[in-house]
Structures are given as C-alpha cells and as structure tokens.
Amino acid sequence: MAGPPVVIWEREVGRLLRFKDLVPRLEDALGKFSRRDSSEVVQPVRSAVPLQKHNGFMGLMPTYMENDGVLSTKFACFYKRKEGSSLPSVQATVVLLDPEYGNVKAVMDGEVITAMRTAAVSAISAKLLMCPGADVLAILGTGKQALSHYSVFTEMFSFKEVRVWSRTKQGVDRFLDSVGGPVKGCGSVEEAVRGADVIVTVTGSTEPVLFGQWVKPGAHIAAVGACRPDWRELDDELMKNAVVYADSREGAMTESGDVILSGAEVFAELGDVINGTKAAHREKTTVFKSLGMGVEDAVSAKLVFDQWTAQKFHL
Description:
Elements lengths: L5 E3 L1 H7 L2 H17 L11 E5 L4 E10 L4 E10 L10 E8 L6 E6 L1 H19 L6 E5 L3 H13 L4 E5 L3 H10 L5 E3 L2 H5 L4 E4 L18 E4 L12 H6 L1 E4 L2 H7 L1 H6 L3 E4 H6 L10 E4 L4 H19 L3
Parallel strand pairs: 1-6, 7-8, 7-10, 8-9, 10-11, 11-14, 12-13, 12-14
Antiparallel strand pairs: 2-3, 3-4, 4-5, 5-6
Helix pairs in contact: 2-3, 2-11, 3-4, 3-11
Organism: Kryptolebias marmoratus (Mangrove killifish)
Subunit structure: Homodimer. Binds the thyroid hormone triiodothyronine (T3); T3 binding inhibits enzymatic activity.
Protein name: Ketimine reductase mu-crystallin
C-alpha cells in the first residue's frame, strides 16, 4: 500500500538538482519528445487558466513517459507585476505520481526546477546552435531565470565577456552582487547586445526589447520570456531573418507572441537537431524560442526524487 507523499521544499530541491546531471537527461527527453512516440512521451500543450483580477494565469503541464514510468504535472502561476512589486512573478509546484496506482508520490517546490530546467534547455540550444568560438554572452533581465542562465552558461561554456542589462540600475547591481564571476552591467539593451555571440532574453516584457538591427549576424538568441500569444521580446526583423527553433512546435505556434505575431516559421525543434533529422544552422542567426515543457519538469522531478530516495536510504 502506498504511503503518504514526500514533500520536498525549495532548498532541498536546490541541493539535490545539479546541472551536470540534469543536462544529459533533458537532451534525452527533448529527443524523445520530438520523435512523437506515445510510448516515450505523452504531453498535451499547456492549458492556461486566466487570473484576470491578479493580471496573471495558471498553467497546467501534465506529462506521461510510459517507458520510463514517469507521470507528473506542474502547476505554474505567472503574473505581469508592476515595476518594483515585491510579489513573485512565477510560482510553481510539481507533483510526481505513480502511473500504475495513481497515487501522489511526491510534491515538490517547482521554482528551482523551473529555473534550472529552463536554463539547462537554453544551454543545450546554445551547445547545438551557437557559432564555434563564441566569446561574448549577453543576458537581458536580472531575475531568477537570469541567475540560473548565468550559472549554467558559465559552467558549460568559456565566455571571455558576460554582459547584463535590466530596466533598473538596482536590478543590475543586485545581479552583480549575486554572481561570482566578472560581469559587465550595461545601461541599454543595445550596449549589452552589440557584438554578442549569444544573447539570452529573460525579461518580463510584453513588447519587443531586442531589435534585429542590433544583433550581429550569426548570433544565437535564447528567447525565454514572453510566454503568451500577445507578449513579445523580439522584433519582427529579428524573428523573420533568423532560423527559428523551439522546444515544441505546437507550443510555439499556440503560445509564443514572438512567433505568432511576427509570422515567423519554426524551422525545427531542438529534439529534431538532437535526433539528427534537422540541421543545426550554426553559421546563421538563430533563435531558440523556449516555452518550457512538461517533459522537462517530469525528468527534473524524477531526478530530484531519485536523488532524495538514494540519500534517504544511503547507509
């Protein structure tokens, strides 16, 4: 008979989850997802419940991985907060279930999982698509996702220069205080991205902040914010002139304002590149439109649970 579910809090999730373990599992999961084999991954497009009074929405992200015996869902609430608000812009919880019995095995804080799996997938996109010898990384945004992206990008790659921009000087200063390595704070988006080889956009913007005229040919952009059909981070020029990749083609066509409103074509999913069925156009300007997927949460949650179980029973 199944016991009560395990509850794993934010600090514990952060202790158990490591990029070096997570990245290869996510690469494998992205490849499985893009094969569209229902015995590998069953994952509907995220359903969204508007929270109109609070200027947000709740996303529900269920996933079943039959061959791996993983059943999970994530509840994530996203908010468009006013400048200077002390309230969180994202709150998330991941539930892991037993696919045979249907009982809840674990309930875990989803914020660390969301931040780390999102950043790890962006880093996978850079590994696959950025030009060889990339030297300069620019990060637009200074919140939790920006910090998580900084962590994995500097762990996996050797950039000679890292630049960061925020709408506020306080945001830049806070980011610089939080990270260990040398980072250049920039006063404008243009200053941050001119000549950058890799650009990460992790903003709360609903209007374009990154313009194609500032982007060096051959740069790779990991576009992480703007996860609603009417929100933007990138302008039409950039979207139309780049080769666009996504984690999920259906997700991008349903949820990404950058894709929908620009009319850009999604060339491939990252999993297609991993599987060798679509090309990685490293020599061209590339955009990876990240929406986040339930399978990424499922793989991350299983890793956390397995690590927790191993430590619990380790003598």
